[in-house]
Design goal:
With 290 residues, the chain is an alpha/beta fold. It has 2 domains: 53 residues, Orthogonal Bundle (Helix Hairpins); 222 residues, ATP synthase, F1 complex, gamma subunit (Pyruvate Kinase, Chain: A, domain 1, 3-Layer(aba) Sandwich), CATH 3.40.1380.10. It is 60% helix and 13% strand. The longest helix is centred in the last third of the chain and has 70 residues. It is elongated and about 105 Å long. The two termini are 22 Å apart. One of its GO terms (molecular function) is proton-transporting ATP synthase activity, rotational mechanism. Produces ATP from ADP in the presence of a proton gradient across the membrane. The gamma chain is believed to be important in regulating ATPase activity and the flow of protons through the CF(0) complex.
Length: 290
Amino acid sequence: MRELKGRIGSVKSSEKITGAMKMISSAKMHKAEQSLRRLLPFRGQIETIMGNLLSADAEFSSPLTLTRDVTRAGIAVWGSDDGLCGAYNINIFKGLLLRINQLRERYGASLEITLYPVGNKMVKATRKLSGNGITVEVIGDIHAKSDGEAVKAFTSALQQKFLDGDIDMLDLLYMNFKSMSRQTLRNEQLLPVVHETLTANAVTVQCRPYIFEPDANTIFNSVLPLFILAVVQEIFTENVASEQAARIMAMQSANDNAKKLLEQLQLEYNKLRQQAITSELLDILGGQVR
């Protein structure tokens, strides 16, 4: 009974811990949702400008839109810094393995792939893949909760690697935040910026007559890096929101399991206690008290 009582106390403590972690994650998720909403005006303005530019009767050229034969591909993949978020990182890692196979089926088995992981857990997971044409490179001191300056430096570094020819294309792999109970794995090509990249990020042709000063191509080359930065900033924020949402669900499940286990242990404890009381009463009634 003493051992059982100790287990009951341990499970009660675990229940309190998981409940507290759930509330903390809920607050962090709402904060990330607010950050997503704050990004919308900037993102919307960039999309409007891009749509107006695409509607102009002009030719656009930029080093960031240059398509070349793919022999070296890059994949930026987002994960979490901390654990206790269920199968969040496992699902992303499975998606990464699938994407690597898809790229090699498309461009050949000799394709060299460089992984740019974000988040401590994803860094540890991707390092296991190093070798066989796969390189893992951590850019700067980047992590899942990096601030705006670090995100900007990370984005600039990725753009520079594409411009220098270190990679011929760049894919982004992350969890797209839908709601607390739903996050979907999303993969999209960021570089070179093609028409699919723009349409995937809600850029539509406005079809309005505008006079551009200076010329439309110059403005396009100025706005395009801002568009790329807006996409990456949103991904960082979505990753934080998705991580916290996954942790809420994991802690809720752990909390429910703790309650069920506590009920079972309490029932077992009450049975043993009742048996001991009954045994003592029978001893007294039978005159066998020693």
